[in-house]
Amino acid sequence: MGFRANIVESEFPIPPFKKGVRGISSPKGIGILWLLIVTSFFSCPAFSSETQLPDNLSRLLGALEKQQDWRLDGSPQHAKSDGLFVLINGGAEIYLEYGFEQAVLANFKHQNGEALILEIYRMKDQHAAYGVYTFKTDKQAKPLAIGGQAKLSDYYLNLWQGSYVITLTAPTPGKTSQATLITAAKILSRAIEKKGEEPDLVRRFRRATAALAPPAEIKYVRGNLALSAHPTAIKNLIPIGEGVAADYETSQVYLLQFKNTAESLERYNRLRKAVRKERGPTSLRTAKKHFSFLSDENRFVLVRRKAQYLIVLQTGEAHRNSTRFTALRQAIESFR
Amino acid sequence: MTEKIDRRRFIQQGTAIVTGSIVAGTLDPAPAEATPPKKVDISVVQGTDYFKSTKEAVKLLGGIKRFVPPKAKVALLANPQRNNPGAFTSPRVLAAVIEMCRKAGATEVNCISWLPLENWQSTGLKSAVDEQGAKLKITDLKNEELFTPQAVAKGKQLKEARIIKSLFDHDVLINVPVCKDHAGNKFTGTLKNMMGLNSPKNNRSFHKKDWATNPDSIRFLDQCIADLNLVLKPVLNVVDATEFIITNGPFGPGKLHKPDRVIAGVDRVAIDAYCCTLWGLKAKDIHTITMAHQLGLGEIDLKKVTIREANA
User: Fold this and answer.
1) A227-279 per-position pLDDT tens digit
2) Cβ of residue B144 closer than 8 Å to a chain A Cβ
3) Of the residues A93, A188, B53, B214, which has the fewest C-beta atoms closer than 10 A?
4) Which residues have C-beta within 8 Å of that of residue B200, sequence separation ≥ 6?
């Protein structure tokens, strides 16, 4: 199968030997094996079995090729832990923030002339994978009933299942059909055993807001980097542990979880102090259990602390007294 | 004829020396048609023929000979991120830059990088390099001996960079990035592309242990990028803003934006300040741009920048 071709380990960019080496039995194969052992011994002792593609990733690559008329185009590239900094140069931070283990990137060509880029990320746990998936997808994408969750955008598809996030992309938009991306995603999904569950925080958020129209999108956040991608007045002000960002079109909700009540209180006070310092003491309206202010973008921001959580609601100045915003506020304040 | 140039110094102070030399008349004078009637800081050319747009953008600045003296050895820094659409420098843009350099009389045009060959192949950039008669020089990123320590005396956070050694074999550095979204920095363009010349190990030092949770550590990362630009001064920047991702950057895939523009200029801060407006960002919100401006690396206020626009 095509995936037995050389795999490029991002930590060791010289093409290493392949996974299939273990199975070599022909005289020619044995000769190649000896040659590889000798050359790797003399060239660089750092080359080791680390350069083999792990079974789980190898199986996924194989699943696509086995069931379709796909063939690998070039060598797959593989990275683990910090090696991701080289593999997806500059794009690694967000994966590491959520908790990353391994990734493989490969180009495929179909016999009908279509092509696709396959990215498989194995994250540390299913919630890390879910978080990256929500970070990578947007509300314009079309939800699909594949795996744990999947969304189709114009020329690419993201799939979350268990500890995996998989992205399938048409290298040239329009030249690979969306149907092809969907078919490939279904094949890969079948090769992963567990579907996965959303994080507990997300499920509790959904329960608290079940009576409302569902948000346009939910993002699961595990660090400041993910949070800073959101257009909120509190970005870069709160180092957080875990959170949910939900977009209700005219309003946004941020539910941020901290280690304990002492930590949430400290963050609450720190944020209030920062807002007062940045915008002046008259900018704040403080009540018993919350404070509010107008952001630079003239958005009404309300911050409330509840046990180990901070709840931040944001809406346009024109919507702050609307029925929808009030209902949203009441719903999220019932969160437990 | 070309004066003898201390190459290392040239890389560090490229802009000043090339501009100064032209002003002093020590280099071959540029052809009359290449001399702009008025100083142009940034040129912006729109059109769907990216090869033509690139050449036109440089022409509006005064022509390639303003930047590449005859017999020069030219190093090009493109972004071969990988082949997700809108995540890498357009091969057509790079091809045009190579062709211009060669026509200007460069003896060597080399694309230097520590990213693997696969990236160059899958993006089509390797083909562009080959077709235009340039060379691809990939540095083994695992071998720190292939990177030269470079003190960053005026750096606020970064005190030492480690630059690809082969860069110092060249006379001229031209930066050919793609501008696009970036998850951490919100924007990547000329300034951040310089990390492609710094060793990956040193780039990692831009990330403090708590970079993922501490906002100050994210600013530290941005400051390091700005600081790195103190020791790397390309004589020219040609930015691919033809089609790029505005979400899920820098790797993609993400939402594509297609302004069909090529931007050229010397002032990296001004160029990045312009490019980020292409999808509604403001330079004042991008830390790397504001920090580079504070370091005196360029003009952030576009009202003070002479921008010449054209269609190709």
Assistant:
1) 777 766 666 566 777 999 999 989 999 999 999 999 999 989 988 888 888 88
2) no
3) B214
4) A85, A86, B114, B141
Residues 6 or more apart whose Cβ sits within 8 Å of residue B94? B76, B78, B111, B125, B128, B129, B176
Cα of B36 vs its chain's centroid, Å: 22
Q: Class of A200-333 per CATH?
A: alpha beta
Contact check, Cβ <8 Å, B253/A229: no
Interface confidence, given as ipTM, is: 0.84
List C-alpha distances in Å: A105 to A46, A108, A117, A306.
Answer: 22, 10, 7, 43
Question: Which residue in A47, A51, A81, A93 has the most chain B C-beta atoms within 10 A of its own C-beta, making it the best mutation to test that interface?
Answer: A93
Beta bridge partners of A156: A169
Q: Position B311: which residue type? A: N
DSSP E strands in B108-242: the ranges are 108-113, 135-138, 147-151, 160-164, 172-176, 236-241
Q: Among all residues of chain A, which has the CA nearest to that of B251?
A: A91
Q: Residue length, chain A?
A: 336
Inform me whether the C-beta atom of residue B214 falls under 8 Å from chain A C-beta atoms: yes
Q: How many CA atoms lie within 13 A of A136 on its CB side?
A: 32
Cα separation, A125 vs A331, in Å, equals 30
Q: Which of chain B's residues have a Cβ under 8 Å away from the Cβ of A47?
A: none
DSSP state of A12: B
Query: Among A30-39, A140-149, A271-280, B141-150, whose mean pLDDT is lowest?
Result: A30-39
- Please give the pLDDT value at position A68: 64
State both tokens at B57.
């953008």
- For chain B, the domains span 7-311
Find the mean pLDDT for residues A204-221.
95
Q: Average pLDDT for residues B172-195, to the nearest whole number?
A: 94
* CA distance readout (Å), B274 to B43, B135, B270, B278: 10, 31, 6, 7
| Chain A residues within 8 A of B195 when measuring between CB atoms | 90
Angstroms from B215 CA to nearest CA on chain A: 5
Peptide bond into B149 cis (omega under 30): no
Higher-confidence residue of A274 and B62: namely B62
* Sequence ranges of the domains in chain A: 2-190, 200-333
* CATH for B7-311 (3.40.640.10, 3.50.30.10, 3.40.720.10, 3.40.50.11440): 3.40.50.11440
**What percentage of residues in chain A have a pLDDT greater than 70?**
81
pLDDT > 50? residue B7: no
Confidence of residue B93 (pLDDT cuts 50, 70, 90): very high
Using the Cβ of A173 and the Cβ atoms of chain B, whether some distance falls under 8 Å is answered with yes
Give tens-digit pLDDT for B141-163.
999 999 999 999 999 999 999 99
Q: Compare all CA atoms of chain B with the CA of A108 and give the residue at the minimum distance.
A: B122
Q: How confident is the model at residue B164 (pLDDT cuts 50, 70, 90)?
A: very high
3-state secondary structure of B246: coil
Q: Is the pLDDT of residue A316 over 60?
A: yes
**Averaged pLDDT score across all residues of chain B:** 88
Alpha carbon distance A241, A223 (integer Å): 6
